């Protein structure tokens, strides 16, 4: 029977990392730039995922374009599910990481009990392919949670944070070359490509000029980053379609190549994976213990900036300022009327829009942006958004929203 998954070549990993980068940047652009909102964005991409997956499942063999389109969509969808838990439901990242780890173990367990193989070189039936795509979806959600939790623990910038998953993937590759179990090696590397691609996307999209302690990048923005990587994905898919260099024609042929192994080397490889996990844990504990700039120092630095009403946004495009003021006013009205849910949702949308506009507004007026950002952080703090504290009383929310509206003129 024909295999439904491409051969694992260097092209597979290149395009997989490209897809994960798009998953991060494109989701951010749709969610924040267009003001759709996190939950609505998740619903949209869930619907798209169902459609593209249905097309993929109906195919009798691996075809590059629908396969990689499904990977792109599932990368965005899995990322959004984790973001909803973190940003909307305020679930700590370590809990999300634990939940998705258990869920992935369950998927693999049921898959193994039913099919007696987890190899992607044997995805030749509908049940196996269904398990495969479910596992892929969970790996993206897990990779997002794990990557974000790592950044939260360490305070690393996106550029620096690229090095950890990159180094781990390199170590896994060496262990696989030595003789470690290929199936385990594949899925470990597959999970790690998510934080690697996300960190690359953040590094490219983040502004060059930032506050002390803020991540810096190449200032391409989420839209430009998405276009670049979508173009690279399209070019790679066209190449693979023409050359068919990633096609595994039959399970039997792939099976003969990929399942031969030395049991002793596999045990040594398993010990190597365990040692790698211990070393990574030690590195994260050490990085967490090191002094790094967090929310509190950042707020202290910016709170000293005092500007006259309207002065901070004087150099910003009026349309962008008006959009921010509309959301702030909506949140204020809902808070005043006792609609806590509506006020929180409007404040969340305000945060999303402000973050999306950072790359374009901050270079226009660093001082003005810093002043508004400081007050914006106070507003978000009253709602418990991006802060560990619970929501504050409506009176405090109204006070900070009024102050923000005054600052914006």
UniProtKB/TrEMBL annotation:
InterPro entries: DUF347. The chain crosses the membrane at residues 34-55, 67-85, 91-111, 131-150, 156-176, 183-205, 217-242, 268-287. Keywords: Membrane, Transmembrane, Transmembrane helix. Coiled coil: none annotated. This is Membrane-anchored protein. It comes from Streptomyces graminofaciens. The lineage of its organism: Bacteria, Bacillati, Actinomycetota, Actinomycetes, Kitasatosporales.
């Amino acid at each position: 029977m024909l295999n439904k998954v491409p051969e694992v070549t260097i092209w597979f990993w290149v395009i997989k990392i490209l897809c994960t980068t798009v998953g991060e940047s494109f989701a951010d652009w749709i969610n924040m730039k267009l003001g759709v909102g996190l939950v609505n964005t998740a619903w949209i991409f869930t619907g798209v995922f169902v459609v593209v997956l249905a097309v993929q499942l109906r195919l009798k063999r691996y075809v590059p374009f629908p396969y990689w389109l499904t990977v792109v969509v599932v990368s965005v969808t899995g990322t959004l599910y984790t973001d909803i838990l973190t940003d909307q439901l305020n679930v700590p990242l370590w809990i999300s990481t634990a939940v998705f780890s258990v869920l992935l173990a369950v998927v693999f367990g049921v898959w193994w009990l039913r099919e007696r193989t987890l190899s992607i070189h044997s995805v030749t039936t509908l049940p196996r392919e269904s398990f495969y795509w479910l596992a892929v979806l969970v790996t993206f959600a897990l990779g997002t949670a794990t990557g974000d939790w790592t950044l939260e623990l360490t305070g690393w910038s996106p550029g620096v944070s690229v090095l950890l998953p990159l180094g781990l993937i390199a170590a896994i590759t060496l262990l696989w070359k030595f003789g470690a179990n290929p199936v385990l090696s594949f899925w470990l590397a597959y999970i790690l490509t998510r934080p690697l691609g996300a960190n690359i996307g953040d590094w490219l999209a983040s502004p060059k000029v930032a506050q002390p302690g803020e991540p810096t990048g190449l200032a391409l923005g989420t839209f430009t980053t998405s276009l670049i990587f979508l173009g690279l994905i399209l070019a790679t898919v066209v190449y693979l379609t023409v050359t068919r260099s990633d096609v595994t024609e039959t399970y039997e042929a792939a099976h003969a190549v990929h399942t031969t192994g030395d049991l002793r080397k596999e045990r040594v490889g398993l010990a190597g994976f365990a040692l790698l996990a211990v070393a990574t844990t030690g590195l994260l504990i050490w990085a967490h213990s090191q002094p790094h700039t967090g929310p509190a120092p950042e707020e202290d630095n910016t709170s000293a900036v005092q500007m006259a009403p309207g002065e901070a946004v004087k150099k910003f495009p009026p349309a962008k300022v008006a959009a921010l003021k509309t959301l702030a006013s909506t949140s204020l009205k809902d808070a005043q009327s006792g609609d806590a849910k509506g006020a929180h949702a409007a404040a969340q949308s305000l945060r999303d829009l402000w973050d999306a506009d950072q790359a374009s507004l901050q270079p226009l007026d660093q001082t003005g942006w810093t002043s508004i950002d400081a007050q914006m952080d106070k507003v978000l703090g009253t709602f418990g958004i991006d802060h560990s504290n619970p929501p504050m009383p409506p009176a405090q929310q109204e006070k900070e929203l009024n102050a923000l509206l005054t600052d914006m003129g």
